[in-house]
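Milestone 3.1: sequence recovery, worked example.
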């Protein structure tokens, strides 16, 4: 079992001192930083957008992993590239022309991800999996950090892994929501490559150690 990439989400960081959170992540074993963008329409919460991402881009060289929980994300693909996002993930449920959106993300130089809500079957990706760099499986209903991991996700991770192997896809599997030191090993064992974590890390008395705990599973 290879070590997972950890992508801490700043959604649970102290927004009055984001530079402190970024410096902390710079000193950690996390390779990516997860950016949860919410519009109050696709999900019942509003988080932050381009100006915040642009300002923290100056503080770190870590991979910027943006998870767009917004309607019509295709409107902003160029903007996310311009502010320094590396991996751009859109939700399957927001897309009529997913193939066009994925093509554009890759054409302008970012990695393309597709996220599935807990109720959206993995099989819906079978005709696009070869073109994806990443599949994000939501293990909570998107919108908030601090929710409980949905157990059915283990089956979805295995199913995504089978689909990837069967189709010779290079897509990585990212799992997002309710991850902590009690379930991380089982999630990685099922086939996850990247673990997103917000509340477990930022509510931990030692966030650097919390990240190591997840990485060493
Ligand atoms: C939820 C977000 C997640 C969330 C994870 O909509 O996509 O990235 O911040 O938070 P935890 O790790 O607290 O479940
Ligand atoms: Zn997320």
């Amino acid at each position: 079992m290879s070590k997972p990439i950890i992508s801490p989400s700043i959604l649970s960081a102290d927004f009055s001192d984001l530079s402190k959170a970024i410096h902390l992540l710079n000193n950690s074993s996390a390779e990516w930083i997860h950016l949860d963008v919410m519009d109050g329409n696709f999900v019942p919460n509003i988080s932050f957008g381009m100006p915040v991402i642009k300002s923290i881009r100056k503080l770190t060289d870590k991979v910027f992993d943006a998870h767009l929980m917004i309607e019509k994300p295709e409107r902003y693909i160029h903007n996310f590239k311009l502010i320094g996002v590396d991996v751009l993930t859109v939700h399957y449920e927001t897309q009529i022309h997913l193939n066009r959106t994925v093509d554009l993300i890759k054409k302008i130089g970012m990695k393309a991800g597709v996220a599935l809500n807990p109720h959206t079957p993995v099989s819906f990706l079978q005709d696009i999996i070869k073109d994806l760099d990443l599949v994000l499986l939501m293990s909570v209903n998107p919108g908030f950090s601090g929710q409980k991991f949905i157990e059915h996700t283990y089956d979805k991770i295995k199913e995504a892994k089978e689909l990837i192997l069967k189709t010779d896809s290079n897509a990585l599997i990212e799992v997002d929501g309710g991850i902590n030191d009690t379930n991380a090993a089982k999630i990685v064992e099922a086939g996850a490559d990247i673990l997103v974590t917000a509340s477990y890390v930022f509510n931990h008395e030692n966030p650097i150690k919390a990240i190591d705990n997840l990485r060493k599973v």
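The chain has a mean pLDDT of 98. Residues 9, 11-12, 34, 36, 67, 140, 142-143, 145-147, 176-179, 196-200 surround D-xylitol-5-phosphate (ligand 1) (CB under 6 Å).
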